[in-house]
Amino acid sequence: MKRKLLSLLTAAGLCLGLTGYAGAASFPDVSDADTALAVEVLSGLGIVSGGSDGNYYPDQGLTRAQFCKLAVLAEGHGDQVSGSAYRTLFSDVAGSHWAAPYINLACEEGLVSGYGNGTFGPDDPVTVGQAVTVALRLLGYTAEDVGPFWPEDYMALGEQLGLLDGVSTDPDHALTRGEAALMLYALLGQSDSTGKDYIDNLCASKVENAVLLDTDAESGDGSEGMVEVYANQNLSWYEPAADLEGLAGSRGTLLLDQSRRVTGFLPDDTVRYTLIPESVTANRINGSYAVSGSTAVVMGDTLTTFENCWYDLADCPQLTLYYNQSGNLELVAATEGNGYEGVTLTGYYESASPNTATPDTITLLGMELEVEESAVDSLSGCSVGDKITVTLDGDGAVISAAAGGQTALYGVLGEGQVELTCGLTARGTISGSAGAGDLVKVTSSGVGKLSVSQVSGDSSLDLNVSEGTLGSIPLADSVRIYERAGTSVVTEIDLEDIQTATVKAADIDFYATDSNGLVSVLLLDDVTGSAYTYGLLTMGSRTEGSGTMTYTNRTVSVENGSGTTQEYITGQSGRTGDMGGIAVSSEGKAVSVVTLSEAEGVDQSAFDSLDAVVIDGVRVPISDTAEGYNSDTEQWVTLSQARAYSDTFTVYYSGTLGVDAVVRVIATE
Q1: What angle, rounded to 10 degrees, do the helices at 128-138 and 177-188 form?
Q2: Cβ pair 9, 533 in contact under 8 A
Q3: Angle between helices 64-74 and 100-108 (to 10 degrees)
C-alpha cells in the first residue's frame, strides 16, 4: 500500500509506498492486489496471457483443456508439446484440436486423466478439486503420498500448502481465471515432494535476493533495453527474454535461462519504502529512516555507499529503501526525475541565472528550475516580476514559457511551503486561511508570495474503486488521493487501500481534474481509517486560566512504536489503556478519537505472512503501518518480533469485518 502521512503527529517524511510488489498491473480489469501480482508474475513467465483487448477476465471460468495448457506451461514443458501433437488419445479430442498437444502431454505425464469412458471433456469447466489435484501432481505428490480419498485428501493437502489461498474451498466450484492464477502463483513458491524448489523447473539458474531496479535500462557499457538488477552487493545487467515491466522495483528471485537471459521474476514479501526526500543527513532520511554510511546506494548505473553520496540524495525526485528478511536496510535506490512531464506552473518570475536573456535556471514559486534551450526564446519576452506560466519535462526542467496564464495548483501546506500534488515544493511567504497538514489550493500572489485556501466543493459523484472512475470521469494514472477524518489534517492513501467497491459521494470532500479532464486530486472523509495515529490511548485533562477564570479540557495522547504523542485537547471521549486512534486538526486538537475492535485468541495459522489475518472467517488486510505490541514486556515491537514471541494474539482492527476492516495493532497473549 502506498501512503504519505502528512500529519502533525509524525516526522516520517513523505512515504509513497511500502510493499514487496512495486509495479502497476498490466491488466486493467484485475483489481484484487493478490490476483494482480499473481497474473503479473505468471504473465512474465509466459504461463498466462490476456485477451486481445488487454484484459485478463479474472472472473471468467476455465475449461479442462485450458487448464491443461496452463499446467504444461507451469511445468516448464511448453517446448515439448509438439511431440504430442496430431495424436488422438480421447474420442472427444481429435488430433487437430487446438489443445490436443497439451492434453496429450499432460495425460502422458500423469497430470490428468479422462473420464474412464474414452472421453476427456475438454470443454467442461475445470473444478477446484481437479485443479488442485493437477497442482499436487506437478509437485510430485502421488496418491500414496496424498491419501485414498478424492477430493477430500487432495483439498486438505492443497489447503495446507497454501495452494487454495484466495481460492474457493468447494471442490466442485468451477475454477476462474483469477483463481487459477492464485493457485499457480502459490505453486511457484513451493518445494516439491523431494524438497527441491519448484521454481527451479522454470529456469536454468536463478539470482536470489535480487532487486529488479529497471526493465528498460542502459547498462554500463551502453547497451539499451537491459534489465538492471542489484544483488550480492553488485549491480548487474541482463538481456530480457520476458516482459517484466510491471514488476520493476520489486525484490525477489530473478530467473535466467541457459544464455543468462531473464525469463521471469518471483517477488518476495520483504519491505520496501518509497519516499520523496525532504531532508537527508549523514545518518538519516527524512528524520525517521536511519541509514548507516556503508549502506549501498544505486544512482542510475552507479553503485556507491550512503556516506559517499548522502548530500546528493535530497535533490533526487524519489528514493526507495529496501529492507532484507532481517528487517535491516540493505539498499537505497535513487530514482531519476521522470514524473513531471507536462506539469504546468503559474507564478511570478522571481529571478534568473546567469541572466534573463540566456537563463540556465529561473526561480518560480520559490523553486529553482533548470531551463532547456527550447525554452530560452519563449522566456526572452518575460521580465522578472512578470506573471508567467511554464511547462516542464520529465526531469522538472522548463521546456516552454508564456506570459500570464493561470494553472490550478493543489498541495499540502507545511511551514513556509506547500508540497504540490505534482511532487514539487512551492516556497514563499504564505497567506490565507489554512493550517499545516491541510489540503489547499495554491496561487502565486506576488514575487515570493503564496496564497492558500482550504479546498472545498463536495462531490455529487460516487467513486467506483474497481473501475477507477469518479462517476463517469476516469482517474488519472498519477491521481493523488488524500483522506482526513472530519477536519483533521490529511493523509495520502492509494486506491488499493480502499476496501469497499464504492465510495459514496457523501464521503468525498473534494476532487479536481487535470487539463485532460481526468481526476487528478481526490479528498475522502474517513473512508479507510488511515487518517488516525493508532496505539494505546491515554486520557487526561488540562486546566488553564487563572483565578476564578479557569476552565478544564479533556486531553488525549497515543503511545506506539514511535513514542508518545503530545497531549491534544479533545471533545471526544475514550478510555486510558484502550487500543485506539486519534485524528488531529491543523489547530492541534484531536477532532476524532476511536477505539479499535479486538479479536482475541488468534493463532499463528490465521496469518497470511504479514499481509492479512483471518478473523471469524474473514480475511482482513494488515496495514503497512500496523504496530506490534508485546503484552508481557509492555514494549512496542515489530510485527515479526510479535509473531515470533507468541502463538496466540489479540488483533485490533479498525472498520467493520467483511466491509472495510484493517488490522492496526497485533498484541501478544
Answers
A1: 20
A2: yes
A3: 60
pLDDT (tens digit per residue) in 301-357 = 889 999 999 988 987 878 999 998 888 999 999 875 446 878 999 999 999 999 999
* Residues linked to residue 473 through DSSP beta bridges, in sequence order: 470
End residue of a domain, out of 217, 252, 267: 267
User: Both 468 and 549 in a single domain?
Assistant: no
What are the φ/ψ torsions at residue 593 (nearest 5 degrees)? -125, 125
C-beta separation of 352 from 343 below 8 A? no
Examine the domain organization and report whether 40 and 134 are in the same domain: yes
The DSSP annotation for 98-109 comes to TTHHHHHHHHHT
Domain with 359, as residue range(s), is 344-454
Q: Radius of gyration over alpha carbons of the chain, in Å?
A: 28
pTM: 0.56
For residues 207 and 277, membership in a common domain is answered with: no
Q: What is the pLDDT of residues 21-68, one digit of tens each?
A: 544 456 778 878 789 899 999 999 999 988 877 789 999 999 999 999
Q: Are 52 and 128 within one domain?
A: yes
Residues 6+ apart with CB under 8 A from 482: 6, 412, 439, 490, 491, 492, 493, 521, 522, 523, 524
Q: Which residues pair with 255 in a beta bridge?
A: 206, 264
- Residue 490 near residue 438, CB atoms below 8 Å: yes
Write out the three cell numbers for 315: 535533490
User: Total domain count for the chain?
Assistant: 7
Q: Which triple of cell numbers denotes residue 535?
A: 496505539
Q: Average pLDDT of 619-645?
A: 92
